[in-house]
Amino acid sequence: MEKVPQTFANHTRYDPLFHFFVTLVFLVNVILMGYHFIRVLSPPSRWDTILLSGWIFILSIALLIAMTRIRSYPMRVQDRVIRLEERLRLMSVLQEPLRSRIGELQDTQLVGLRFAPDEELPGLVQRALDEKLSRADIKKAIVKWRPDYSRI
């Protein structure tokens, strides 16, 4: 299967089961359990029913938080790997005095630079440092996109 050429417009990846099903189910669960808990609070509810409903509501919030955190941890690790890869690539591509300024680049800038081909790197690094470009600004400035199909 041939991959579609990657660009700024289409580089964001979604996992439909995670982003549009699991996330929605957890969110709806919190809303429904919150509604149920509020309904149970009205008299003449028994204290054990209130306690159980409250616990289920707290558990549903904890599950939603856990789901978002479990997703964010591998993304942070992946950004650290990208940072390392890009620093190594910049060391081999850049000439002085830019090479000695690699440490001034922010992590988010390094993550954005991964899409730039080697020939565009010196100019983009210079702009990123001088103009304090954001990750999105760096990506938008890339002329010939270097695809990354491995991103989670």
Provide structural commentary.
This protein is mostly helical and 152 residues long. It has two domains: 14-76; 94-147, no CATH class. The chain is built from five helices and no strands. Helix 1 packs antiparallel against helix 2 (47-93), helix 2 packs across helix 3 (107-113) and helix 3 runs parallel beside helix 5 (135-141). The mean pLDDT is 91.
Radius of gyration: 23 Å
Structural class: mainly alpha
Termini separation (Å)? 19 Å
Q: Roughly what is the average pLDDT, rounded to an integer?
A: 91
Oligomer: single chain
Instruction: Tell me the major beta sheet.
Output: none
- Number of helical segments? 5
General form = elongated
Task: Return the string of H and E elements.
Answer: HHHHH
Tally the beta strands. 0
Strand content range:
under 5%
Number of domains: 2
Helical content stands at: 55-70%
Residue windows where pLDDT falls under 50 for at least 5 positions? none
Quick gist of this model?
The chain has helices at 16-41, 47-93, 107-113, 121-131, 135-141. By secondary structure, it is an all-alpha fold.
